[in-house]
TrEMBL record, chain A:
<keyword id="KW-0274">FAD</keyword>
<dbReference type="InterPro" id="IPR005107">
    <property type="entry name" value="CO_DH_flav_C"/>
</dbReference>
<dbReference type="InterPro" id="IPR051312">
    <property type="entry name" value="Diverse_Substr_Oxidored"/>
</dbReference>
<dbReference type="InterPro" id="IPR016169">
    <property type="entry name" value="FAD-bd_PCMH_sub2"/>
</dbReference>
<keyword id="KW-0285">Flavoprotein</keyword>
<dbReference type="InterPro" id="IPR036318">
    <property type="entry name" value="FAD-bd_PCMH-like_sf"/>
</dbReference>
<protein>
    <submittedName>
        <fullName>Xanthine dehydrogenase family protein subunit M</fullName>
    </submittedName>
</protein>
<feature type="domain" description="FAD-binding PCMH-type">
    <location>
        <begin position="1"/>
        <end position="223"/>
    </location>
</feature>
<dbReference type="InterPro" id="IPR016167">
    <property type="entry name" value="FAD-bd_PCMH_sub1"/>
</dbReference>
UniProtKB/TrEMBL annotation, chain B:
<keyword id="KW-0732">Signal</keyword>
<feature type="region of interest" description="Disordered">
    <location>
        <begin position="1"/>
        <end position="27"/>
    </location>
</feature>
<feature type="region of interest" description="Disordered">
    <location>
        <begin position="48"/>
        <end position="69"/>
    </location>
</feature>
<dbReference type="Pfam" id="PF00111">
    <property type="entry name" value="Fer2"/>
</dbReference>
<dbReference type="InterPro" id="IPR036010">
    <property type="entry name" value="2Fe-2S_ferredoxin-like_sf"/>
</dbReference>
<dbReference type="Pfam" id="PF01799">
    <property type="entry name" value="Fer2_2"/>
</dbReference>
<protein>
    <submittedName>
        <fullName>(2Fe-2S)-binding protein</fullName>
    </submittedName>
</protein>
<feature type="domain" description="2Fe-2S ferredoxin-type">
    <location>
        <begin position="70"/>
        <end position="146"/>
    </location>
</feature>
<dbReference type="InterPro" id="IPR052914">
    <property type="entry name" value="Aldehyde_Oxdr_Iron-Sulfur"/>
</dbReference>
Length: 328, 227
């Protein structure tokens, strides 16, 4: 692996100071994405700031019912936290559907929010990729774009899906990302954190240079709701989603009082679907209602040569999840 | 420079008895610049020297690490080990090259195959995606730590009995994952649970059925007090 300078920080302030606003500095949390990409020479940090010594690995319930998660809480710890299992089943399930046991033991909440795309043209280091090398073009458009390429939120510059399962659940729940930077602390709405590729696919998130994620705070659980994460993929385990759905519903008998729906594997960011939620609200649960609502999520979908199947598959991911959730 | 030579410059086993420090190891780290931070700056490859030869007359035991290296202490299979590493050395390479614990295998080197799985403080991780320098003070168990006093671990015995070794390349990682799973009360005990929890270990020769059988058999043996 290429050489880099290394600094170990013991506080968020230290980490931010050591990082500075340098484009070629990187924070090291679990390292499961960063070191992978450094080995591939896709990321080339000159300085790595290790934040494993920073005290950010606790989960706290706030007075207003929200759950504040430290950026260094591992995926395993978050998935198993009793409050998460109890109040945010969709998040626990999404985490456990992601990666492998070993990777979940190492990967962290903040790192997962910052996960890079799995597009093979981004990762191979040589193909045209506007994300890796702005202005070089996009080899995925017109290339092999079957599995990790989106039908929602794409642009002529980039069609890579956001790979995280955890973030799809967080998009459905609603959350706030707390960051610390050279200019101090600030909060970013989770819905605004990940950016659409547009004309600037290299800019993937709303962080300013040198800002560090310190916490993700989940909105208070929707009272009396049930939730689930459904992930569809080529093999049963250890694979990125072709399509997934995170669904939270609050029922009154057979009537849907409220629904929150987000999708993975089909969008260039964790994809909340307010039009689906609106179409479900107040309706009597039935497959026809679910199918009609799910269809709305894909009204603006753009299919590429090999991923058109994601439009019906994404709808099915919503319909089946709703069917299972409301049957209980 | 091939990988082996390159690694020699990046990781060295610090044992004053076997490898007395060379003068170059005594250079002090340059002032870090950020207050309170421990910083290691990576030098050019050519300026880093490997640990001195055993014949080196300079036997100062507590010489500081060479410029660009950091000294870490690991407890590996119950034994305390001191290493000097550059920041880019992964834990897997430190174990294999400096400590000669070659039971842990390098497969894909990208966290996709699980051959490098070890336990860190009782938790399974991919040692290929972890910097050695981040593990100062950690307790590590590798496949070499399974056998105790000449007695095979129930997992080793079970893998043998169920033909779960196959070519053997991924086996060390399979067994370390299995050990973590069997010691984890939060992971279910069904075949499906085992299969799911083992899915980060990829064996390309089709031994999955036998591997699951071996893990389940070892579960019985370990509960029987043989562990």
């Amino acid at each position: 692996m290429r050489h880099f300078d290394y600094a170990r920080a013991e506080s968020a302030q230290q980490a931010v100071a050591a990082h500075g606003s340098e484009r070629d500095a990187a924070f090291l949390a679990g390292g499961t994405t960063l070191l992978d990409l450094v080995k591939l020479d896709v990321m080339q940090p000159q300085t790595v700031v290790d934040i494993n010594g920073v005290d950010l690995d606790t989960i706290a319930r706030l007075d207003d019912g929200r759950l504040r998660i430290g950026a260094m809480v591992t995926n395993t710890a978050l998935a198993r936290d009793e409050r998460v299992v109890e109040d945010y089943a969709v998040l626990s399930q999404a985490l456990l559907a992601g990666a492998s046991t070993q990777l979940r033991n190492k990967a962290t909440t903040g790192g997962n929010v910052m996960q890079r795309v799995r597009c093979p043209y981004f990762r191979d280091g040589v193909s045209a990729c506007n994300k890796r090398e702005p202005g070089s073009g996009c080899a995925a458009i017109g290339g092999v774009n079957r599995s990790v390429h989106a039908v929602l939120g794409t642009s002529d510059n980039c069609i890579a899906t956001h790979p995280s399962d955890m973030c799809v659940a967080m998009a459905a729940i609603g959350a706030t990302v707390e960051v610390q930077g050279p200019e101090g602390r600030r909060e970013i709405d989770f819905a605004d954190f990940h950016l659409l590729p547009g004309d600037t696919p290299a800019r993937e998130h709303a962080l300013e240079a040198g800002e560090l994620i310190t916490h993700v705070t989940l909105d208070a659980p929707l009272e009396g709701s049930r939730s689930a994460y459904l992930k569809l993929r080529d093999r049963q385990s250890y694979q990125f989603a072709l399509a997934s759905s995170a669904v939270i519903v609050r029922m009154d008998g057979n009537t849907i009082r409220e629904a929150r729906v987000a999708m993975g594997g089909v969008g260039t960011k964790p994809w909340r679907a307010p039009e689906v939620e609106a179409a479900l609200k107040g309706k009597t649960a039935s497959e026809a209602v679910f199918a009609d609502a799910a269809k709305r999520a894909f009204e603006n979908a753009v299919a590429y040569a090999h991923n058109g199947y994601k439009i019906p598959l994404g709808q099915q991911a919503i319909v089946r999840n709703l069917t299972d959730l409301t049957a209980a | 420079m091939d990988d082996r030579e390159r690694l020699k410059t990046e990781v060295s086993y610090f044992d004053p008895q076997r490898h007395p420090a060379s003068p170059s190891r005594r250079r002090f780290l340059k002032s870090a610049g950020v207050s309170g931070l421990a910083v290691a700056a990576a030098p050019a490859l050519s300026s880093v020297s490997y640990a001195g030869s055993p014949d080196d007359p300079d036997t100062q035991a507590e010489a500081p690490p060479a410029e660009g290296q950091r000294r870490i202490t690991l407890t590996v299979n119950g034994r305390r080990e001191q290493l000097d590493v550059t920041p880019n050395v992964i834990l897997l390479d430190a174990l294999r090259h400096a400590l000669q614990l070659t039971g842990t295998k390098k497969g894909c080197d990208h966290g996709q195959c699980g051959a490098c799985t070890i336990l860190v403080n009782g938790t399974s991780i991919n040692s290929c995606l972890s910097l050695a320098v981040t593990h100062d003070g950690d307790e590590i168990t590798t496949v070499e730590g399974l056998e105790k006093n000449g007695q095979q671990h129930p997992l080793q015995q079970a893998f043998l009995e169920h033909d779960a070794y196959q070519c053997g390349y991924c086996t060390a990682g399979q067994m370390m994952s299995a050990l973590a799973i069997l010691q984890d009360d939060d992971i279910g005990t069904s075949d499906a649970d085992v299969r799911e929890a083992m899915s980060g270990n990829i064996c390309r020769c089709g031994a999955y059925k036998n591997i699951v059988a071996a893990v389940q058999s070892a579960r019985g043996a370990m509960q029987g007090g043989n562990a």
